[in-house]
Structures are given as structure tokens and as C-alpha cells.
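Tutorial handout. Part one gives the primary structure; part two gives the three-dimensional structure as C-alpha cells.
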Amino acid sequence: MSDADVRSKRVRVGRISGLFGVKGWVKIHSYTEPRENVVGFKEWIVEHEGSEQRVEVEAGRTAGKHVIAKLKGVDDRDDARRWIGAELSVEREALPPCEPGEYYWADLEGLTVRNLRGETLGEVDYLMRTGANDVLVLTGGADRLIPWISSVVRDVDIDGGFIVVDWEESFWES
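Part two.
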């Protein structure tokens, strides 16, 4: 996967989950870490009911346990209501660069996972957060989970399109 391919991806950053007040503000369920980073983007790609459009983020902040945002042109509660459930994305290039050895989850999705013997175990479908560590979820079934810990994940080559893990196919067998 080339840098151009990685950079052309869209990255989901959140979802509009509700209304806040009467002046068009919406609650955001953020997928960013920390959660308030979602309102740091100037523009979101808003996907809702089969269509998408680019929307300018006029303002945003935390409000108690919520992250809230004001979208440009959305000025009352009724107008804001139509956006509930919309998914929010940004272009990959809008994200700040990672430090060496750090990765955005979106950059790992779709990479081939191979073990130390070179056997292909699958492709990264998505990652999930658990209490102890993050987990790679591979395509091909619910039991294809690999912990994202240094003793297991040995190499990540975004440009080459693969991840090398110290893991065996037999670990998934009962």
C-alpha cells in the first residue's frame, strides 16, 4: 500500500448522536482519542440516509460528559434533528502525522497479517479496544482475534501492506 493509498482513505471520527439545546448544536459520539479531538477538524464528511456532504464545523467543545458541535448553517433544533445518526468522517490527510511506531487504526485496516513463518492468517477487518489492550479483528470469523501487544505484533509495514505477528493458526482451534 503506497502513501498515496493510505492518504486517500477516509477515516470515521464519530457519529451525531443527539441534540443539545435549541440553537442547532448536536451531541457527538466521538471515535477519536481524546474524544474532544473530533471537533478540532474544520470540516466533516457527513454520511446520512444514503447521501453525503461536506459540512463546516463552526464550533465545538465538551459539555459535561458530552462532546457537542455547531455545524455551519444548522441554526435551530429542528434543522439539527435531521442529522441524528449521521456518520462523520475526515480525509486521512487531515489527521496529524503519527510518531514513529504509532499508527492510526484506519491505516491498519485491510493489511495482510502473517505469522513469523510467513503464513497468511488473514486481513485486518478492524480493531477494537478492550480493557487490557487493543485487539486486531481479522476477516473470516468472530474467533479470529489477535492482541495488539509488543510480544505478539512484531512488525508493521504500512507501505508493504502487512503486519507480522508471533501467532499460529492453531491458537484459534478449540
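Part three, for discussion. The first strand starts at residue 10 and ends at 20. The helical segments are 3-7, 77-81, 105-108.
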